[in-house]
Amino acid sequence: MSQIPSYASQFKFLVLTFPFPKVLHVELARPKVNAFHEEFWREYGAAFDRIAQDSSVRVIVLSSRMQKAFSAGVDLAQLGSKQVSPDTARSGLLLRTLVQEFQHAISAPSRAPQPVIVAIHGIAFGLALDAIAACDIRWAAEDGTSFSIRETDVGLAADIGTLARFPKLVGNLSLFQELALSARLFGADEALKVGIVSKVVPGSREEVIQAALDFARIIAEKSPVALTGVKRFIAHAIDNPVDDALQYQATWAAAAVQGTDLVNSAQAVIKKQKITYENLGELNRVKINAKL
C-alpha cells in the first residue's frame, strides 16, 4: 500500500507516494496532457527542492498519471501572455530573469542528491525533453512513446535544458542534431539509438513505470552516502577535466571514508550478510547572530 508524504498536499499538479520504502514516486498530473504553464513549472521545481531535503527518500521515480502523455511540453496558450515593460532593455532583462527561473525549476531533479529515474510513455514533446534531460536514468515504453524536440516548429530557441544537456550525454550527436533541427517525431527505439534513453521497456505506461519502480527499489537498498557521491561525481565529471574531477572526488572522499557505511559494508561482505543502511539524516540548522 502506497504511503503519502506529509508535504504532498502542498502540490496541485503532482502526486507523490511511497510505493516502496525509500522510493518516492512523483507523477505529473495536470489534465489532459501535462502541459506546463508557469504555476505548474514553479511547483515542479519547488517539489523537487523539497524532496531533496527529505532523508527518507533514497531514489525518485518520475512519471505521468496521464494515460496517453508524459507531457505535451509548454502550454502554448499561456506562453505569450507575460506582460513586460514596453522598454526593450527592461523587457529583455525581465524576460531573461523569467527564463532563468524556468531553467532553474526544470533543472531541479539534477540538483537533488537522490538519483532520479524517469519513466516515459505517450507523447513527450518540447519541454518534456528538457525535464527528461535533467534526470539521471531515462527509460521509455516501447509502445506508443513519441518524442519531438520542438524549438524549430514553434519558432523558439529559448532552451530550458534539452540543447544544453543532451549534447554532452548522447552517443550520436549527428542524429541528435537531425532530430533537433527537423523537430520530427521519433519513437523509443530511435531515442535509444541516439542516447536520449538507456532502455526501452516492452509494453506501455504501466510496464515502464513498474520497471522503473522495481529498479528504484534495488537502488534504494544501497548506501545513501555512496548514491549521493556517485551522482555528484558523474555530474561534475561531465563538465570538468579528469584532474579536476579527481580532486573533487578526493575532497569528497576525505569525509565519506570516515563514515560507518564503508565499515559496515566491508563487514557484511566478510560475514555474507545483508546490510541495511541508515538514512542520511536531517541537518540541524543553527542561526548565528553575527555583527558585520
What is the third-level CATH name, the topology of the largest domain?
Answer: 2-enoyl-CoA Hydratase, Chain A, domain 1
H-E string: EEHEEHHHEEHEEHHHEHEHHHH
- The percent range for strand residues is 5-15%
The tally of domains stands at 2
- Taking pLDDT < 50 over at least 5 consecutive residues as the criterion, the unreliable ranges are 285-292
Radius of gyration: 20 Å
Q: Main beta sheet, described?
A: 6 strands, mixed
Summed over residues and divided by their number, the pLDDT gives a mean of: 91
Count of DSSP H/I helices: 13
Instruction: Name the strands of the widest sheet in spatial order.
Output: 1-2-3-5-7-10
What is the general shape?
globular
Helix content: 40-55%
Write down how many β-strands occur, each being a DSSP E stretch of 2 or more residues: 10
Query: By helix and strand content, what is the structural category?
Result: alpha/beta
CATH architecture of the largest domain: Alpha-Beta Complex
CATH class of the largest domain: Alpha Beta
Task: Provide a brief overview of the structure.
This protein is an alpha/beta fold and 292 residues long. It contains 13 helices and 10 strands.
Word description of this protein:
The chain is an alpha/beta fold and 292 residues long. The protein folds into two domains: 8-219, 2-enoyl-CoA Hydratase, Chain A, domain 1, CATH 3.90.226; 223-292, Lyase 2-enoyl-coa Hydratase, Chain  A, domain 2, CATH 1.10.12.10. It contains 13 helices and ten strands. It has helices at residues 38-51, 76-79, 88-106, 108-111, 127-133, 151-154, 162-169, 173-182, 188-194, 205-219, 224-239, 242-256, 260-271, and strands at residues 14-20, 23-28, 59-64, 69-71, 116-120, 123-125, 137-141, 146-148, 186-187, 199-201. β2 (23-28), α1 (38-51) and β3 (59-64) form a beta-alpha-beta unit. The longest helix is centred in the N-terminal third of the chain and has 19 residues, at 88-106.
